[in-house]
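Re: iron/sulfur cluster structure - here you go.
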Amino acid sequence: MSVTTKKRLQGCEVCPARCCNGLEESITRPNTRDEVDELKWQLHFDTTKIFIRDRRWHKLVMGRCRYLDERDFCTIYERRPSQCRAHNPPDCEHYGDIFDVMFNTPEELQAYIDKEKRRRNRRRRNGGGSKGKRSR
Ligand code: SF4
Ligand code: SF4
């Protein structure tokens, strides 16, 4: 008999399977212009988003898992991958925001990078001024 089982974890029953509708991947913070350009290029695709949570950077590729049925049931629940098994309420998308900052477009990412750069420069200028003139 083929069995189609809905995830039985508490909370999943009332969730539109958010964790099965996007692929989240940890990425390193972009530090060089090339690395920023690479992420900006990826954001040209409207299925891609970049977000920061707890200072860690992530890429989110929107798309529906091929093993999710039209009722949002996992059709391979008993043999779902370990990544899915590790994904549990309440530490999941269904409970509050999964991000502190979300970038949907290259422009949003660039604006954030520019703002961070200005903030760093300001901090450096303020800190750098403390060595001032020596008193004689
Ligand atoms: S693990 Fe979280 S996001 Fe995934 S179906 Fe369950 S409640 Fe929804
Ligand atoms: S394999 Fe199942 S639990 Fe994992 S993402 Fe796909 S539908 Fe969701």
